[in-house]
Design brief:
This protein is mainly β and about 80 residues long. The protein has one helix and six strands, in the order ββαββββ. It starts with a strand and ends with a strand.
Length: about 80
């Protein structure tokens, strides 16, 4: 299953690079997003380095999920693909 990094989880003055919002292809409701909770997510950089994370919860009602990674993702990760295992 594939997803796209949409944004970092953020507030008005801060953002957390470990918490990332991901839009998954084919998931368009909160109920479908709930089924993905606990699955593993892998982001691969252009050099081949992999950063792993887990789906923590849905974000909103449109099927976007919140992923918590082991290490923070770089800013270049925005709009790139992640793999959901």
């Amino acid at each position: 299953m594939e997803g796209v990094v949409v944004s970092f989880r953020r507030g008005r003055h801060t953002q957390n690079p470990r918490h990332v919002l991901v839009k998954v292809k084919g998931v368009d409701s909160r109920e479908k997003a709930m089924e993905l909770v606990g699955k593993e997510v892998v982001w691969t950089s252009s050099s081949g380095k992999k950063i792993r994370g887990k789906v923590a919860s849905p974000h909103g009602n449109k099927g976007i999920i919140r992923v918590i990674f082991e290490k923070g993702l770089p800013g270049q990760a925005l709009t790139t693909k992640v793999e959901i295992i």
